[in-house]
UniProtKB/TrEMBL annotation:
CDD domains to which the protein is assigned, alphabetical: GST_N_family
Bilayer-crossing regions: none
Entry keyword set: Transferase
Origin species: Caenimonas koreensis DSM 17982
Gene3D superfamilies named among the record's database cross-references: 1.20.1050.10, Glutaredoxin
Keyword Lipid metabolism: no
Keyword Transferase: yes
One Gene Ontology MF term: transferase activity
Name of protein: Glutathione S-transferase family protein
Domain GST N-terminal as annotated: residue spans: 2-85
GO cellular component: cytoplasm
Organism domain of life: Bacteria
Length: 268
């Protein structure tokens, strides 16, 4: 039997959602993953499969049909791999986790807007905007959760959706000094959730060091593998490996690091 083939970008949060769900089910080998280099134009065949769009992941099924959007792929995998269902089966609990997941889009947008911001005068406002969403998440969890750490008793659907973003927002800790205010009751419940999510064994596909190093160009305002002025290599480049590169400078508003300073090319 031919396995579904997922075209994905390494360290992509939307692809990590699928990997987490498969790990929860113990079905990592039920899907093939094919890496796409974000720093290069999409191959023509991939554009044909996606009908001209560049967003990933996309899934090619054995019969040639193609599915897109991570939430769609999550649902497809949860339903076609019925062992250990991740989404809630009780209608009310499913509705609750769906309400929580409806908040993810605004949350993701606020976090990425903050890391890509290049106007230091907007920092305070953007920090406040992201904190406000964390506070709403915390309030939702305090009202609806039935577990001490997760939304329900175990790591589930909502955690698959949010955990990759919690991990990506390590870049805001590093480049923006963003953190939830310690001791502030408005954030207590969501802070517990974040820590439990990022520590879960099924969610260990990426590391903080990897996120910080690969997303340096995002912190300088260039996303999706786009080159920065004066640079020849994207921080998302496969080679040299992020493991061999130095940590980037924290100050995203100061002078930009060069390819050599980022360990992307040999010093001249």
């Amino acid at each position: 039997m031919t396995l579904p083939l997922v075209y994905h970008i390494p360290v992509c949060p939307f692809s990590q959602r699928l990997e987490i769900l498969l790990a929860l089910k113990g079905k990592r080998d039920a899907v093939q993953f094919q890496v796409v280099d974000i720093t290069r134009p999409r191959p023509e065949r991939l554009l044909q499969l996606s009908r001209g769009t560049t967003a990933l992941p996309i899934m090619e099924l054995a019969d040639g049909h193609v599915l897109k959007e991570s939430m769609v792929l999550l649902q497809y995998l949860d339903e076609t791999l019925p062992e250990k269902p991740v989404a809630q089966r009780d209608p009310y609990r499913r509705a609750v986790e769906n309400m929580l997941c409806r908040m993810e889009g605004e949350f993701t947008t606020a976090g990425y807007t903050l890391v890509m911001n290049q106007d230091a005068t907007r920092r305070g406002k953007l920090h406040e905007s992201l904190l406000a969403i964390y506070a709403r998440l915390s309030d939702f969890l305090s009202h609806h959760s039935t577990g001490d750490s997760f939304l329900f008793e175990e790591f589930g659907w909502a955690e698959c959706v949010f955990t990759p973003m919690f991990m990506r927002f390590w870049f805001n800790e590093y480049y923006e000094g963003f953190e939830l205010p310690a001791g502030d009751a408005r954030y207590t419940r969501v802070a517990q959730w974040v820590q439990a999510c990022i520590a879960h064994p099924a969610a260990q596909q990426v590391t903080r060091e990897e996120i910080v190093k690969l997303y340096y160009d995002y912190a300088r305002g260039a996303g999706n593998g786009a080159p920065l002025p004066g640079r020849t290599v994207s921080s998302f480049a496969f080679s040299p490996s992020w493991k061999t590169r130095p940590w980037p400078p924290h100050d995203k508003y100061g002078p930009a690091a060069t390819d050599a300073q980022l360990g992307l090319v040999a010093p001249s």
